[in-house]
Design a protein that fits this description.
Helix content of chain B: over 70%
Number of helices of chain A: 23
Oligomer: heterodimer
Radius of gyration of chain B: 16 Å
Number of strands of chain B: 0
Distance between the termini of chain B: 9 Å
Number of helices of chain B: 4
CATH topology of the largest domain in chain A: Rossmann fold
CATH superfamily of the largest domain in chain A: NAD(P)-binding Rossmann-like Domain
Largest sheet of chain B: none
Largest sheet of chain A: 6 strands, parallel
Structural class of chain A: alpha/beta
Number of domains of chain B: 1
Shape of chain B: elongated
Number of domains of chain A: 4
Radius of gyration of chain A: 36 Å
Order of helices and strands of chain B: HHHH
CATH architecture of the largest domain in chain A: 3-Layer(aba) Sandwich
Helix content of chain A: 40-55%
Strand order of the largest sheet of chain A: 5-4-3-6-7-8
Strand content of chain A: 5-15%
Largest interface: A-B, 17 and 16 residues
Chain lengths: ~575, ~130
């Protein structure tokens, strides 16, 4: 227990203690002074012990009866007064103590104390997540216990209760608290060595800016992952030296740009987010005229993307708030609205994007557009993860779920940094290059391979690091041999290699590996497991390296032990 | 003037004086030590302890500690008395001296407490 709690308890207990002491002492004194009689009628005066004993069980309403002898009438008169006197005092005292246990202030102090302890006991690297909502929930689900731990702060106790009901494993310490409060941030362990960073993805850019400033001042070493939706804000954050600024609208805009100009780069990016590694007919972005409905942050960002791609577009000045106020409805599509769509040239357009803040409005805009032009390509912005099913049922070609994009991008940055780098690098290449890569991947690893990241250090690649220490030369092609038959190749592609700050996209297979190289590997799960065996198990590694005699570390066993799986 | 200071000063001092009143006298003669006075000393000491609860200063903590010592000593003294009278059925010389000397220890703790209290008063600038 921390100091503060003891003092809260002691201060509150003062009056109840006082009442109990006074009522008890008066009753005891009275009983001692009043003369009684023994069973034989001889005069008897109660001692302090007799009186203390009697009053103790009387006041607590246990009531063992009159002791040590049956009372005389004067004693009974005193006792009938003392019963009411002490029982009231006792109940008041007990009541006060019970209410103290239920006291909101004390509970908060106790919770905060427990939270602080839990954070201090975290020994794995962790992220502080500010605000609990569907975005951060997705992130916690992905990272918690796998790569990092999480600590959550939220203003509302309701949200924290929701989190507790989620029953995350391993446990996620969470506390009610203001994210801009320095004290709370300190309690969440911002100064701890294993604190990797702070994630702040609040809707309001101002709040994010506030938090970023406070966090920067508190600890310069941590990553601050922050959401910013306006270009000025992004520029401001970058000036502050923040490493990672999340702008979901920028991500959407870039995706549309690449989707139109180089579909294979788009495909590579989307594959990293779970798309299959094959362009389907319906994935193709049209090249004709685009109509953007909604001129907010997202509308503007998309317009920028389209402009860069050199596509014709019209952006309609339209805000959901104004529309709802005017028409008192979220259903788009009366005669006037239809006329507007026709005026915008819906019949000649190839794509319509509904980018307002209101999900229902987005749906009804696309519905009206489809009625006018059944072949039109539809894209919708969806703001919250909750009603994803309606959108899926509406047969919209592309749905941009802002929250999901934010969660995925943040997860990639935290847990899959090489994927993040790969996407950045791929964007710098041209369509031809991307098509070649997609073909290579399809040929070697199939239509739906997975990507894995690993660092060649002692922890992840034990055998390999022993080999490094012994001065062995290992190239990427050495590691591509199957452990069943070393003359066969593993179905595995090394997509990217990172050495220090240098990044090699599609590294040459003759490249020498060095300790602590980071690799982005594409394979299916079984093949990757084989690969992990090879880099961790000395015998397997020696087999694929074609080494008959082994290094001294293995001693006797190494000479005989060759395992074929 | 502060009402809280007056009351707490009164109880701290009263705890000490009652304690002294019980302690004073021939330690082998129980007749010279009144049970009523011991009772009063215990009650006043308990009240003094409660008054010291919840003071977050360093001095408050020390005062509380000395007061708790006095409580323990006095209650031990009363317990020895009750034990000797009802369980051993005989208050011998050993029990008598134990009762008195236990209260003597409490007196020492109470004196420390009062000295600290006076010291704090002298130090204060008002």
């Amino acid at each position: 227990m921390n100091e503060q709690i003891i003092w809260i308890v002691l201060k509150r207990l003062r009056t109840p203690f006082f009442v109990i002491i006074i009522t008890f002492s008066i009753s005891i004194l009275g009983l001692v002074l009043i003369p009684g009689a023994t069973d034989q009628g001889k005069p008897y005066q109660m001692t302090f012990f007799d009186a203390f004993y009697f009053v103790s069980y009387m006041a607590s309403t246990i009531g063992f009866g009159e002791a040590p002898y049956t009372f005389t009438y004067p004693q009974r008169m005193w006792v009938s007064f003392a019963i009411y006197f002490t029982v009231i005092g006792w109940f008041y005292g007990i009541g006060a103590i019970v209410s103290l246990i239920q006291d909101e202030g004390l509970r908060r102090a106790l919770n905060l104390n427990a939270f602080k302890k839990q954070v201090e006991n975290l020994h794995e690297p962790f992220y502080i997540i500010l605000g609990y909502n569907s975005i951060t929930k997705t992130i916690i689900n992905k990272i918690n216990g796998v790569d990092y731990r999480a600590v959550v702060l939220d203003k509302s106790s309701q949200k924290i209760e929701e989190l507790i009901l989620e029953n995350f494993y391993p446990h996620v310490p969470a506390s009610v608290g203001d994210a801009t409060n320095q004290q709370m941030l300190k309690m969440s362990g911002i100064h701890q060595k294993n604190c990797k960073g702070v994630i702040s993805l609040f809707e309001n850019d101002m709040v994010n800016a506030n938090i970023a400033t406070v966090c920067m001042l508190l600890n310069k070493k941590i990553d601050i992952i922050i959401k910013a939706t306006l270009p000025e804000q992004v520029a401001h954050f970058q000036k502050m030296g923040l490493q990672h600024v999340q702008n979901p609208f920028d991500i959407i805009s870039k995706r549309i740009y690449f989707g139109i100009t180089s579909p294979h780069i788009w495909l590579l990016e989307m594959w990293m987010y779970g798309h299959i590694l094959k362009l389907k007919g319906r994935d193709k972005f049209p090249n004709g005229k685009y109509i953007i409905y909604g001129s907010g942050r997202m509308g503007q960002a998309i317009a920028d993307g389209l402009k860069k791609a050199g596509v014709e577009y019209i952006i309609k000045d339209f805000t959901s708030k104004k529309y709802i106020e005017e028409k008192e409805s979220t259903i788009f599509g009366d005669a006037k609205d239809v006329q507007k769509l026709i005026d915008l040239g819906i019949k000649e357009s190839e794509c319509i994007i509904a980018a307002t803040k209101n999900d229902i409005l987005n749906l009804s805009i696309l519905n009206s557009a489809k009625q006018l032009n059944p072949n039109i390509f539809t894209m919708a912005r969806e703001n919250s993860l909750d009603d994803l099913n309606i959108f899926k049922a509406a047969k919209i070609n592309k749905i941009y779920v802002v929250e999901q994009i934010l969660a995925d991008a943040t997860y990639n940055f935290i847990s899959r940094p090489l994927v993040d780098i790969f996407i950045q690098e791929a964007r710098k290449q041209d369509e031809e290059w991307a098509e070649v890569i997609v073909n290579i991947l399809n040929n070697i690893t199939g239509m739906n391979p997975k990507s894995f990241e690993t660092e060649l250090n002692e922890e992840n690649a034990y055998a390999l690091s022993l080999e490094f220490n012994a001065g062995g030369d290992i190239t990427l092609s050495n590691l591509r041999r199957s452990r069943e038959n070393k003359n066969e190749m593993l179905q595995i592609v090394f997509l990217l290699l990172k050495r220090g700050d240098e990044v090699y996209l599609m590294p040459n297979s003759q490249m020498q590996l060095q300790p602590n190289d980071k690799l982005l590997i594409v394979a299916d799960e079984d093949t990757y497991e084989d690969f992990e065996y090879i880099i961790n198990n000395i015998y397997e590694l020696n087999y694929v390296l074609d080494k008959e005699d082994t290094n001294n570390l293995l001693g006797f066993w190494g000479k005989h032990g060759k395992i074929k799986a | 003037m502060n009402m809280y200071k007056i009351i707490s000063g009164l109880f701290f001092t009263l705890a000490m004086t009652l304690n002294f009143g019980f302690f004073y006298g021939d330690p082998t003669q129980l007749i010279e030590h009144s049970a009523y006075e011991l009772f009063a000393a215990i009650i006043v000491n308990l009240i003094a302890t409660v008054l010291k609860l919840g003071d977050r200063t360093q001095l408050g903590a020390v005062l509380l500690a000395t007061s708790l010592v006095a409580d323990i000593q006095l209650i031990a003294s009363a317990t020895v008395w009750a034990f000797a009278e009802y369980v051993a059925k005989n208050i011998g010389l050993e029990a008598t001296t134990a009762i008195v000397s236990l209260s003597g220890g409490a007196l020492l703790a109470n004196s420390v407490s009062v000295i600290l209290f006076i010291g704090d008063t002298i130090k204060s600038k008002r």
